[in-house]
Specification:
The structure is a homodimer of 296-residue chains. The first copy, chain A, is 40% helix and 18% strand. By secondary structure, chain A is α/β, with parallel strands linked by helices. The longest helix of chain A is centred in the last third of the chain and has 17 residues. Chain A binds a DNA duplex (30 and 30 nucleotides) through helix 1.
Chain lengths: 296, 296
DNA sequence: TGAATCGATTGAAACGATTCAATTTCGGAG
DNA sequence: CTCCGAAATTGAATCGTTTCAATCGATTCA
């Protein structure tokens, strides 16, 4: 075989078998280290299973998500790992009727008709805000609520509200700071709108829906002469590797990123190959890592 | 077509056409934001060309690189974008005889038989060290020379040596600090070996072959009570987005990451579709960004 | 009215691996 | 030496799309 330099034709195999040896991954932003870490967890599994990984960046857009979903279906992928930006209902039914397994990633699926692997976002949002209240803050900003309902944001906000209620704080003490995007630029924008609030009504702490937002927030605050955590305490979300190396080491809600990817990929492979596969809904628990940004 | 919920079968098309609508990307470490930024540049192009991107993480290993190369050939990909960790000679010939286009990425191809898109690494290594000499340092550490010859490292080291020679410094004033890996952990290890050097012979500045190394280096130095840039000045390479948000904002040699990916993908698509394609060797020029880590 | 031309529709072959059936080969036992 | 069963080999059909040839229909012009 090697002597004749034979390279088998996967197209032909795929046509015959009805499925390829590739799996699709759709994420909202591959530039976010959170998702690259998840992807590496996935790669562990796909590599061991002799499969290739098609990475699709939906760029937080439902339209691009749709397009990639179609293309993956055409490719007859073994399965799709999907971090949905909106409601995944359409994707679910579309792939189901094509017989393509789908595992929801970082999204707690409502139905039991597919696997999902997620982290308890309500608990995460709650522990971030509870921590800020516990160290004495009265008014807390919540950074990340977009106009469109991104699932993770919704849950973390619910957790934040729960923390406020638990500590008997009025709902108005949680100030929502919407952002145009969930990245560094969004964090900078949020910092500006935070500073636009009159000092007396301004939150003295913010909980950001991911670390990129927190980084942008801190950069802008520092450049405007604010001190962290003196003037504003900041908590991020994800605990990406860079969090502890930042100008002000960032407190963050850690998610088991690598595990998240691994488990999801394992479930997908199982569903694609194992006849008597049973759907699972895996929920990991997050963990608060306190660093200097909320420890003054 | 949509009414009947028809989804075309790419496997069959591929079998007939002899090639698929996917392109392969092989990188040494997708966890390095440099490569994700490059990947996003690539995605711009593939997305517009209606192609899918198969991302392969070679994990800095020639064996894994080989395996992925084989799998991509089997997939009959449209082409391969390759950031080689060793000599790409084998890959080049193997794909050539299968008629699969290959564009070398971040590697200045020696031959004119394929396209390559790279950044002038000699110039980059040179400007980093020249800068350190210009601000008064006499002994400079070079972090990143591994046992195996990673192409980029070799060129940047050559540039560093050139800078030393230009400024009439003895060759011994450039201290090579090898690292087990080209990431944060490697930087930490390099910091330890730096501190093991007797203070009088210890370099007062280091040039790291990428920003992850620089981050690890700075983290370990700071935790050991060293001041940056007071005790040790640090320059990184790549200028990843996080560089300016770090504990000590990092000076770094900026590479046009997005452009790098874009251009490479464009050349690949051209080679795959355009009959009268002419190979190009694109070389971008790097730019030194000076920040606090080398500005004391 | 017939022939010629052009467009449209239909038909068949091909891509290469897989799978299952059919045939051949081989070994052992009677 | 023959016969049977097991193993190995050969053969053909299939997957769904594309491509090219062939057939068919219609329109135009002599």
């Amino acid at each position: 075989m090697t002597a004749l330099r034979y390279v088998r034709n996967e197209s032909a195999r795929q046509l015959r078998r009805g499925q390829s040896r590739t799996i699709g991954l759709i994420v909202p932003d591959i530039g976010n280290p959170f998702f690259t870490d998840v992807a590496r967890g996935i790669e562990d599994v796909t590599s061991a299973a002799d499969a290739l990984l098609i990475v699709c960046d939906s760029d937080n857009g439902a339209d691009k998500e749709e397009r990639y979903l179609t293309m993956l279906a055409e490719q007859q992928v073994l399965g799709v790992l999907h971090v949905p930006v909106g409601s995944p209902a359409g994707a679910i039914t579309r792939l189901r009727e094509r017989g393509i397994p789908l595992v929801l990633l970082d999204y707690k699926g409502a139905s039991r008709k597919q696997c999902s692997v997620s982290v308890n976002d309500v608990a995460g949002g709650e522990m971030a805000v509870r921590h800020l209240l516990d160290i004495g803050h009265k008014r807390v900003g919540f950074v990340g609520a977009e106009s469109k309902p991104v699932p993770q944001v919704v849950d973390r906000l619910a957790g934040a509200r729960k923390a406020m209620a638990d500590r008997k704080r009025p709902a108005g003490a949680l100030v929502i700071l919407p952002t145009p995007s969930l990245n560094v630029a969004g964090g900078i924008a949020a910092a500006r709108s935070l500073l636009d609030i009159a000092p007396l009504r301004r939150p003295t702490a913010v909980s950001c829906v991911n670390d990129l937002l927190a980084i942008g927030m801190m950069q802008e605050l520092l450049s405007r002469g604010m001190r962290i955590p003196g003037d504003v305490a900041v908590v991020g979300y994800d605990d990406i590797g860079f969090a502890e190396a930042l100008a002000v080491p960032l407190s963050s809600v850690r998610q088991p990123r690598h595990q998240l990817g691994r488990r999801a990929a394992e479930l997908l492979i199982d569903e694609a190959t194992n006849e008597d596969h049973r759907h699972e809904r895996v929920v990991f628990e997050p963990e608060l890592i306190v660093r200097e940004s909320s420890n003054g």
